[in-house]
Amino acid sequence: MEQVADEHGNNATPTNGANIQHSQQGDIDMIRNDTPDNNNSIKANKEQESGNPTSTDADLSKLDDGKTLLYPQASSKFPMKTVDRIIDDILCDMSYICDFDTANSESEGTYRGLLRTASLEYSHKRQNMDTYAVGSFVDQVSLQTKYEYKSVTCPELNKVNVYYGILINPNLSLSDQDQVIDVPFYHLKISVKIRPYIETRKKQVGVTHYHLVDELHEFDAPDFPNFNKDEPTLEDYAIYVSNDTNRVLLVEIFQSEFSSKENKTDFKKENIMLRYKEAQNRLGDILPDIKVTPADCYNTMFKIFRSPLNRCSRDDPVRTIDGNNVSLNTHINPDWLVSKYQFQKHEAKDNDTGEITVEYEPPELSTYIDDHTVRGLRETYIRRCVELAFRGQLAIKVARKEELEANIKTRNALNALHTQFSISPLYQVCAETNVLRFQSNDFQNPLDMNFHFINLSTKFYYADRDIIRNYEILYSLDPENVGIYFDALSFIANAKGAYQLVAYCGKQSIVGKEALDNALRMFKLDPKQINMVDIDENFLLSIYKHEVRHANANVHADLKNAARVLAKYKQSDLLKFYVDYEPYQIVDQAYRTLEIDESVDDDIVQTAYSIKVTDAPGLIMDCSRALYTIAIKKRSMYLLNFLVDQCPIFHEFYSPSKYSYQDALNLLQVNENASDEVILNVFQQRWSNESIDEPDRLLNLKAALTKLSIEKKSKLIEHFLETGTIDPTCLPPENWPTGLNNIGNTCYLNSLLQYYFSIAPLREYILNYRDTMQDFETNTSTLKKQRRIGGREVSDNEVERSIQFTYQLRDLFRNMIFSKERCVTPTHELAYLAFAPSNVEVEFEVTDKLSVSDGTENKDNDENKIDVTLDSSLQSPSDTVSNPIRLPSPPPLIELDEPDVDMLKDEEQKKMENKKDIASSNKVAKISSDQLENALEMGRQQDVTECIGNVLYQLESASEPIKLDDELEQYDLIKKLFYGKTKQTIMPVNNSTKVPAKYERFLSLLVNVSDHPRDIYDALDSSFQDEYLTMEEYGDVKRTVSVTLLPTILHVQIQRVYYDRERFMPFKSIEPVPFTNKLYMDRYVETDNQELLEKKIETSKMKERLRYLHNRRKELLNRNKFGLSRKEAYMETIKFLKSDTLEKTDIDVTDNEETINGLNQLIEDVNNELNSIYTEINDLEGKISHQFDKFHNIGYTLFAVFIHRGEASYGHYWVYINDPNQSGIWRKYNDESVTEVNESEVFNFTEGNTATPYFLVFVKNEDKEGIEPLKRILDNPEIETLD
């Protein structure tokens, strides 16, 4: 006899003899009556109730061969959905029915649910619907919810898969088990008929398309015997057929099996306890006084319904329920088994005792395969079990702690049921197992809920070809809404950034109404008031340019989509081109596209573009956008020319032919009488200075200039358009600076003279110089007698040679202004006086009279005078006159068409008056040819700073002092322009002794490349950093240096020449020192700004830490005498310890493995420390570079860069000078050659470049107007000889 323990731990005992087994107090346990007669009678009864296949079914099986499509016109049925769309419809179907009041809305052409409704009708509502969870049984042993049947009509080939699940709204807020029965549960049944023969032969690649059909084919209907459209509990259904293999997909959603009001009250705690009390009264003391919960009821009913489902055949024992079973009587009402759940009640009277025994026999469910009626009842039992299991598990989740402790067995039983919430089983039963789909379900893209994706029955993971197929099928089935489908396709293309989709959209000539209306609204146009026929494409383009100017990334993307829609509708190639090639908003994206760094030159950009489009032709549009972006960012004519050459479509829209001659003039804002030089000047100013609010602004300017070049046949403009630079040979001499011929080792002197010429105040002072030695001798001013220059007195001979030097320089400057030649030649006397140290005495002889030079030197036969034939090949014709005139500043430009005649007359009159006020020296230096050769050789060996000092000393010596300071040092224009002052403070560390501050005058700030500075600020920091020294007088001291007076012109000398003590020779360092065109000196100036002082202290600490890190890194990476770093030494030691050398040499190393482990740990420590050091260095360098970003009150602008190319003992010099009056262009002054260069050439910090800056010149921002490199006047006034 089988004993079954009940939930309270009691064992069941027999009460009706040996033939019937039952449980009085335990859980429901089905016990069969195993007498032969009884068993046979039950079997007979079931046979009478069962239904056998009809003759019609047999006939149909002969007609369906399983190889023929039963729905050949399926592809013409609408709506069409993919399995993803159908499953999503399943998930939100009940939300749509319940929340959107569709319960009574079903009529012809409309349905109350989503399953048969076209996506367009509900796509906008989808995001407001709740997504239900799908519950399934994973363990098919505890409860089978997945079935496979052979087809009735074609059992040899076809089969039907059936899945049962539950739908629950996960947005629940429950606090008690009583609330569980009120939660709406819906049953999901999916039946799929598969035709394997057709599947293997006609299955299409990609996403399967399912089409809604109204009725099943007569060969398919028998395979879905229990499908009834009129079933009262059926909430929604749909029949879909795939267009390729005619796979049938039947989806049915049923109401809850326990949704009646009676059921809802029966599962409340109050009613449950009433039943328990009644059972106690009926059964007596056998029942303890416990609390029964809804979870207990769900669990008991689950077991009742599961038992008949577990019978596999009619031969298996029938398990009945004892009417006196404790769980049966306390957890449910036993009468329900007969009245509601198709059980049969059997009563038997004991002949001996007269006691009546009651048993409940479940219905026969094992014959479901052949008996459709039984199958229907079985499905009901499956649904009840599924629902009870999930309700029971939900009740356990919300149960109170004491309820769980009192019903441990119920909790364990329910939790042991292996269930899950997942949509994977839905895909499996539909035979859709795309890996990407399941990845997508785990990480679902939010765009899948977007109405555009829903309209097109698409998911984000779909391949482009599948999205296109969906679009083509839907618009062919539903042509009235083709615009909406196209809107969806366009949105998906842009959302995915898929070029194939974008290209496909571009080939379509369809624009939907919604898309058009939305596009107009994005352009802030009212669709109701706009007639698109009357709108011009240029008007739309102007709106787009205006709107994107301040739009963020998201709005910009929307505007771009809108522009594409309007371009298609208007068939506007211009608007489409503009949007397709619009530059990237972030320049870094352009550099990343071409895989180059932002610092590269234009030619590298061109090379990178060519390589990229050759390797990946499909990316030519992206690469062209990147090139366009960089060209605009750099304002590079060179790159724009290359772009137009590579992409002819740019020439189509920015061709000069689009402009008339007058239009081009108007765009450039120049007069039709303007010269080529004026046009170029205006163009350059606009090209360089105008803000680029519209990306194609530069292309339009270029097209307009090209038009003028063609019309005017201008070689000057043509050359500029080709190269981006001005060809001086095409300019009249007055529009370009004058070059200087090299007369022998004078390249850096020429650079220096060009530099001084560009400083207008200095140039005007020299041009107006008229003092003579007689003036100094007869002047009784004490200032001249007491003055000191450079801390020493000035001798009469120094004054005399300085006057003569100034006259030589004055004549050269006049020649550079008035000469009609493109280059002039400095005199040998000027070169000698510039190179020879100022303390070298020079003899002068007095000539008979003061004369006017005609630009050539006096060629008499006096052997003591300069031999001008030393290098005749270097001489050039000259228009120089020795008597200078006072040069007027050019009048401001009033109009470009007609000059002001009166104004010109006034200027001419001033020139004639000024010439009478300036005298010239009547002395000539007595310099032999040997002396001159020695001076030129001295120039070859001399550093440029020595020459600068010599030149400035002579200019000061020839000048009258404005005032003298306390040390009698002369203050004059030179001091004002070029000299600053530093303050050195010595502060004893250990005592309070006050040390007077020391003030020093400086001509330039010296920085060293040997310190490996990261940039110009890092280099200057080294010069101004605090130092701790030991002085004999004060002991340990702290020395600080700050600037107390800044000059108008600031020189920064880069020290590049060092002495190699091993090779006993000088060498030049070519290490780059990056700089920009701006320099801010706030951090170096003496200040009481507390915030700035704190920043300096903080930066000093950072630099100290940085030095430590660099030293530590160097220490870790240094190599020993064997050429091994620390890490490499450890690794080699490990190799040695692991080798067989130790054994061969009988060397005994104790703890060998421990030693190896220790060395490995040391290697790991070195790696970790190096990684930490590199990270901290990068972090500190980044912080230091931005420490003083807010301190930009004392600003300088770079305007001259002296370059040396070569080695320490030889090389060539030139200078770059910026012209702020000519759109900020840079010119290269290379002796007689003066050419325009790109800014990138000036700021070239490429490693290994031997053409290195060694002298940088900055001007105060407020004094930039004093820089005037271009000064030419060719209409020389008549010069009279002065007595």
Automatic annotation (TrEMBL):
Segments of skewed composition (Polar residues): 10-26, 870-883
Record EC number: 3.4.19.12
Stretch list, region Disordered: 1-63, 870-897
Catalysed reaction, written as an equation: Thiol-dependent hydrolysis of ester, thioester, amide, peptide and isopeptide bonds formed by the C-terminal Gly of ubiquitin (a 76-residue protein attached to proteins as an intracellular targeting signal)
Hydrolase in keyword set: yes
GO annotation terms (biological process): proteasome-mediated ubiquitin-dependent protein catabolic process; protein deubiquitination; regulation of proteasomal protein catabolic process
Any Pfam family the entry gives: UCH
InterPro entries documented for this protein: Papain-like_cys_pep_sf, Peptidase_C19_UCH, UBP14-like, UCH_repeat_domain, USP, USP_CS
PROSITE patterns xref list: USP_1, USP_2, USP_3
SUPFAM superfamilies the UniProt entry points to: Cysteine proteinases
Domain USP: 738-1261
Coiled coil residues, start to end: 1149-1183
GO molecular function annotations of the record: cysteine-type deubiquitinase activity; proteasome binding
Sorted UniProt keywords: Coiled coil, Hydrolase, Protease, Thiol protease, Ubl conjugation pathway
Family: Belongs to the peptidase C19 family.
PANTHER family for this protein: UBIQUITIN CARBOXYL-TERMINAL HYDROLASE, UBIQUITIN CARBOXYL-TERMINAL HYDROLASE 2-RELATED
Annotated protein name in UniProt: Ubiquitin carboxyl-terminal hydrolase 2
Species in which this protein is naturally found: Maudiozyma exigua (Yeast)
Species lineage: Eukaryota, Fungi, Dikarya, Ascomycota, Saccharomycotina
